[in-house]
Amino acid sequence: MEISEILKQGLGKYVNRGKYNLIHMVGNGHVVKFKRFGGMEFKPFSEHEYKIAKALYSLGISVPKPEGIFNIEHPKTHLIVPGFVMEYIPEKRLIIGGNYESALWSREIKEVRRHGFDPFDSGTDNVIWCPQRNRIYLIDFEGWELPKGYKI
Ligand SMILES: Nc1ncnc2c1ncn2[C@@H]1O[C@H](COP(=O)(O)OP(=O)(O)O)[C@@H](O)[C@H]1O
Ligand SMILES: [Mg+2]
Predict the structure, then answer these.
(1) pTM for the model
(2) CATH match of 3-87 with 3.30.1540.10
(3) Which of 60, 124, 130, 137 is the least buried, fewest Cβ under 10 Å from its Cβ?
């Protein structure tokens, strides 16, 4: 289904929140990440994160497929604000240490560094372990920068 069709289904249930953000479902297979207090002034931050996610995705790093920045009604303020829409990944908490999923995570972080990124704040809060897909996904790139000389 086209992303524009999915967005017409409206905002779905609450997924989780981070320090500054609020994540809700959109349709069955996507989420939107809003700033918790969600005003238009946050647009550059969402756009920055989308840009980083796109770069990582195009390099083959395991990240939820980024779809774009769309204006959506915020569940708290009811204002129409920009949100970063991406693929929804069913999540299980990552337990670190000597297991298969930690090894996948380390490998991904190594790949990220090899491409010249500095994986800012890449703690266990910012990784999704998905047992159904046997895969880990890196998330939350707000504090990241593109590597020097990186061409979009
Ligand atoms: N694409 C996604 N699919 C499923 N859950 C997600 C997705 N993105 C974020 N989440 C959930 O929302 C939480 C907060 O997201 P995050 O991007 O880390 O926000 P913050 O920048 O506020 O820390 C994550 O820890 C995770 O549980
Ligand atoms: Mg986070």
Answers:
(1) 0.95
(2) no
(3) 60
